[in-house]
Amino acid sequence: MRRIITITIAVLCMAAWHGYSYAQGVDTVYVSSMYTTHIHFPTDLVYADLSNKADLDAIIVEKSKDVLAVKAKWPFRNTCNITAMESNGNLKSYILKYREHPDVLVIDEKHSRFSDRPDTVEISSLYTSHLVFSSELLYADLSDMGGVSAMILPQSQNVLALKARMDFGAQTSSVSALESDGFLHTYILRYVEHPAQKVISKQREGVTPVGPSGVVSRLRNQDAPLLKDVLDYPQRLFHLATKHDRITVTMENIFSYSDITYVIMRIDNRSGVSYEADRTSFVIGSRTKNRNRIVEETNLVPKSGVGTLTVGPGRSSRMAFTFDKITLSQEQVIRVCVYELNGRRDFFLTISPEDVNLATRPDPSDPEAERKPLFGKKSAEK
């Protein structure tokens, strides 16, 4: 009987120890000067405090305020803590300890899970490696910006491009990426002159990846039309056009759907000289110019684009852009400029508040709309 009691007590002690270890794992975060550790909270953070600012850096991620990034400036001995308050009032504190190579770099409180030990991605200064994710990336962080460069591709924002600036030998660093559907990933970066894989898929099973023509906005509903589809929708606008040198640039459609603004443009080239577009700019500015007043202008950056405004002699072409939701005050306009590559035939259009604020939902079967013929009887300047 005494032996059974002794064994029972031993088992209970072991269980208590495992529970204690798990609690320590939850409340203790290991940080490093080589990698960035991220804590993902259920709601946005309104406050964060480090007890030791001399040895550590911490920041609430601007593009996703439910993520806290922590990194040591150098190795430190004494433990400290970090405290964070969520917008719902919850206050959480973690003990911070230094470890050169932490086993966990993502603490996911949002999904009540810890990430596994990070995978390793091989990069080189000779090649560019690409990580492909299941959804758009909102945020990417490099723990070593001096040795590695990274960029979220503007053409397809679910792809992260990585390249080493130099051979950094056996030293390792980390890259973290946050997807728009809330999944946060961290990978160890190791230098290999000739990596075995240069395109690495990190897409999750059961999640349909987005492509260049499908990336519209992180707010896009499942039934929102894709850019390649709206490119061929019937024309609704006939008053936004400019023409010179036998070339006409028309703003065919402005649609709004699911907090996405679609802009569709067309170029008709009736000259004998090809037209090659360098870039198209969209700038929000004042409707009237006043020399005595400071006018703030805002550049609008398209989330994605399909098609081209480069066109040969006697041909036409279309291009569609998407933006996060756009609205204007009555004193604002959008100035659109199409610049020619290695030329001076630039085109300028002005979009009024009515054109943007009264934009309708895209409908390919709208009986009131009609497709304007490429060189028909109706003038593009009507």
Write the layout of secondary structure elements.
Elements: H1 2-27, E1 28-31, E2 37-40, E3 45-50, E4 56-60, E5 67-72, E6 80-86, E7 91-98, E8 106-108, E9 113-114, E10 120-123, E11 129-132, E12 137-142, E13 148-152, E14 159-164, E15 173-179, E16 184-191, E17 199-201, H2 227-230, E18 241-244, E19 247-257, E20 260-269, E21 277-286, E22 298-300, E23 304-307, E24 316-324, E25 332-340, E26 347-351, H3 353-357
Parallel strand pairs: 1-7, 2-8, 10-16, 11-17
Antiparallel strand pairs: 2-5, 3-6, 4-5, 6-7, 8-9, 11-14, 12-15, 13-14, 15-16, 18-19, 19-20, 20-24, 21-22, 21-25, 23-24, 25-26
The CATH topology annotation of the largest domain reads as Immunoglobulin-like
Biggest sheet: strands, sense, closure?
A: 5 strands, mixed
Quick check: average pLDDT?
81
Number of domains: 3
Quaternary structure annotation: single chain
Shape descriptor reads: elongated
State the end-to-end CA separation: 100 Å
Order of helices and strands: HEEEEEEEEEEEEEEEEEHEEEEEEEEEH
Structural class by sheet pairing and helices: mainly beta
Strand content: 35-45%
How many helices in DSSP terms? 3
Helix residue percentage = under 10%
Strand arrangement within the widest β-sheet reads 4-5-2-8-9
- Spans of at least 5 consecutive residues whose pLDDT stays below 50 are 1-26, 206-222, 291-295, 369-382
Radius of gyration: 27 Å
Beta strand count: 26
CATH class of the largest domain, named: Mainly Beta
> What's the architecture of the largest domain in CATH terms?
Sandwich
